[in-house]
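Standup notes, protein team

Yesterday: finished cleaning the Paenibacillus naphthalenovorans set.
Today: D-ribose transporter ATP-binding protein structure.
Blockers: none.

Input for D-ribose transporter ATP-binding protein:
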Amino acid sequence: MVELPLSLKTIMERGAGMSRRVEKECALFTKHIGKQFNGITVLQDINLSIYKGEIHTLLGANGAGKSTLIKIIDGIYTDYEGEIYVNNRRAQMKNSEDARLLGIGMVHQELSLIPQLNVAENIYLGRLPRNSIGLVHYKKLHENAQQLLALLNLTISTNDLVGRLSIADRQMVEIAKMLSMNAEILLLDEPTSALSDKEVTRLFETLRQLKASGKAIIFITHKLEEIYAISDKVTIMRDGQQIETLDLSIKSPDLEKNLISLMTGTEHHAETIYPGKGNVQEEIVFRIEQYTGRNFHHISLEVRKGEILGIAGLNGAGRTELARAIFGADRKDSGNTYLNGRPIVIKSPMDAIKQGIAMITEDRKKEGFIGCLGVKENINLTTIRDTVRHLLLHRRLEIQKAKKYISKLNIKTFSEHVPVRNLSGGNQQKVILAKWLALDCKLMILDEPTKGIDVKAKSEIYQLMRELAEQGIAIIFISSEFTELIGMADRVLVMNHGKIVHELRNEQITKENIMNHVFKDVV
Ligand SMILES: Nc1ncnc2c1ncn2[C@@H]1O[C@H](COP(=O)(O)OP(=O)(O)OP(=O)(O)O)[C@@H](O)[C@H]1O
Ligand SMILES: [Mg+2]
């Protein structure tokens, strides 16, 4: 027997002193969804109702089950318990194609584009427009793709190879691809994690238009301010369970505290997630002089002992390229490098690691971990040399180290042997962080280290960064989130069009000041 109590729901919308009844239609609902991986329950009794013209956010710590849930809705996992209804009809999808036919489109947490194909081909992959004799209609392909790029205000070309694009642009292409499907139900898994504020604003404008045209949207984010900016409802998930759904049109004074408490299952007391500024010493640990290379020019900077040096800038400002050049991952054309006052030469990441320079990269999937290896092996990747020296202790040390970081960073895994590819996106990030933290280093370069990390783990990472700085490690901290730069950095350099355009210290580090220089056009 099919009961459809959720097909039409009446909700009250309060206007200025007046109330108005608005009927909202349910686009999709789930009944008692449950899911196990290898006998371990990761979702339990999920009953979600998603309405047309609404943005419904899923919020929960890393590993809570958010991605798994929407992958079930997208037809990717078919072995689950419970039922899904789309437009009041039972939907039994066998794959993503079935979901597509039902008007469901998804943007994945892990980008799934093909680097060797161009932007237009990626957007319409498997659905290339054809002419009357069955050949690909390239003109139409590029015209259609161009329209989507224009909608998102993107300036890249439809001919650009995806492999050459920045992560942010790839993310936007992924979104364009979803839009090209004309889906009615949109599933967006952390679409903003790689985007800077400006791109997020643009994406939100598009989402508001889509919402106004009646689309139903499931949105996943770890950023609470995004929930306030765009969501109508938020469902909090914890350990595979649906904890509560809040209607955000009803104002609540303690919303942030409530959300964090519901997510973590503990009372949230902390007023701030930042540990406070540090004790920067005079001694310069690391210095570069006149670095010039692809997308960065004449960069000189120094980092002191115990200092967290923030680098602000838009995507494309040259921050990642500079960091990669310092780490020896990319070539530079010229420039000198000094560690503890001595000139050093770094030609490869191996050179950098030998000198005690660690880097956590932005593109973690590609460079950060080896998916088929376990959590333990990954955490120990950078320190294998160390442990090999004490062959007898080797295994025990590895396990100890892995356990230490699993607990320190709260990595959600059933054991240290689970292959990293089976962890949730955010927990994979934590493994990569752990890998580098386990290395004793003098300089640590962190490129967007909290991308995709839940609020609680974020504050643990901030704490750890401060601890490392207090131990005398110099830290370069690249971030697109102004608030975390303000919360963490002792000094901020602003990069714009490949140059350092400004330096901010102490009370000068404000959102207004950073924005002014980040957005200013450099001639
Ligand atoms: N393919 C898989 N095999 C085994 N376990 C998996 C697999 N995919 C996910 N899991 C487990 O299911 C749980 C939920 O993962 P999921 O990816 O849904 O979390 P999430 O809420 O999206 O987290 P995040 O915020 O980190 O992206 C985690 O414990 C994860 O380790
Ligand atoms: Mg996820």
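Follow-up from PR in the comments: The CA atoms of residues 283 and 304 lie 6 Å apart.
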